[in-house]
Amino acid sequence: MDVVSWKSRRTGGLAARNSAADVEYVTRAALAARESLKAPLLSVLAGVQTPVASALLAVVDPQNFTIIDWRAEESLRHFGYLSEFPPGRVPYGFYLELCRETAKRLAVPLRELDRCLWTFSKVVLSPGPNKSGNGIRRPDDGKGVILTRSG
Q: Alpha helices of the chain — where are they, by DSSP H?
């Protein structure tokens, strides 16, 4: 349940509707299934769509699975990948293979590639209110939002 809450706060309530027995049964079946069925099987659980399923797989086996995320997808699109799919509609198997090939080419673990793609999107492509260019930044110190003037 912690991974579900971390990956998608919006679906945590839905995921809580799954019984412990259902979660255990589906998880065991997904982990035993061939690779192409793992994420789809996990997605039969309430509140678990492909991004959450990919996060669960990445927690269980970080050397072989990575997290599909709109920020990582945005970064890959920036570098000319994924143009054949509409945003948010990239098949996980395709995304996973692209990330594996890229990580191998760069000689980095999948998790490191994921963090780099996410950070590039967050800092460079879609920085949000922290880096909006309005002279105000919000340090994320975990204690709430503190507004300060930069410069």
A: 2-7, 12-15, 20-32, 35-42, 50-60, 70-78, 92-106, 110-120
Instruction: Tell the residue number behind the tokens 């927690």, with chain if given.
Output: 59
What count of other Cβ atoms lies within 10 Å of the Cβ of residue 91?
Answer: 13
CA dist., res. 62 & res. 73, Å (int) = 18
How far apart CA 32 and CA 113 sit, in angstroms, is: 26
pLDDT at 144: 40
Exposure string for 19-53, b = 16+ CB within 10 A, e = fewer: eeeebeebbeebeeeeeeebbebbbebebbbbbbb
Read off φ and ψ for residue 145, nearest 5 degrees: -90, 125
The per-residue pLDDT of the chain, averaged, comes to 82
The helix (H) or strand (E) run that includes residue 148 is: strand 148-149
pLDDT average, residue stretch 106-125: 95
Prediction pTM value = 0.74
Tokens of 126: 């879609």
Question: What one-letter code names the amino acid at 19?
Answer: S
Are 83 and 77 contacting, i.e. CB atoms less than 8 angstroms apart?
yes
